[in-house]
Amino acid sequence: MAKKSLIQREKKKQKLEQKYHLIRRSSKKEISKVPSLSDKWEIHGKLQSLPRNSAPTRLHRRCFLTGRPRANYRDFGLSGHVLREMVEACLLPGATRSSW
User: Which partner for 71 in 3, 15, 51, 80 could form a disulfide, CB atoms 3.0-4.6 Å apart?
Assistant: First the structure.
């Protein structure tokens, strides 16, 4: 189980990312449309003035049940360990164990 403070920090980053998503997207579109370099630098400065944690690359996927930050499967939203346990307990329909 992950620490509660780390999970809360991740949720805070997600809220910031949602808040500044439109501003960040529109600024990036402006940069590609503006021909002059000085205007591009001005828009780039505006982008850099946004909070650092509002960038989507700073987000990290976590396991839905345990909050584990590593070995996550996007399709299920679970870490590998929890996914294996749920498949063995037949809690995920359509998922089967592979044996070789």
Answer: 80
What kind and span of H or E run contains 25?
Answer: helix 4-33
Pull the structure tokens for residue 76: 């299920």
Q: What is the DSSP string of 34-99?
A: ---HHHHHHHHHHHHTS-GGGSGGG-----TTT---SSEETTTTEEHHHHHHHHHTT-STT-----
What does the pLDDT look like over 29-73, one tens digit per residue? 999 999 999 999 999 999 999 999 999 999 889 998 998 999 999
Q: Is the dihedral of CA 8, 80, 75, 23 positive or negative?
A: positive
Locate 7 and state its tokens: 């999970």
Q: 87, exposed or middle or buried, with CB in 10 Å at 0-12, 13-18, 19+?
A: middle
* pTM of the predicted protein model: 0.72
For residues 24 and 20, give the distance between their C-alpha atoms in angstroms, rounded to a whole number.
6
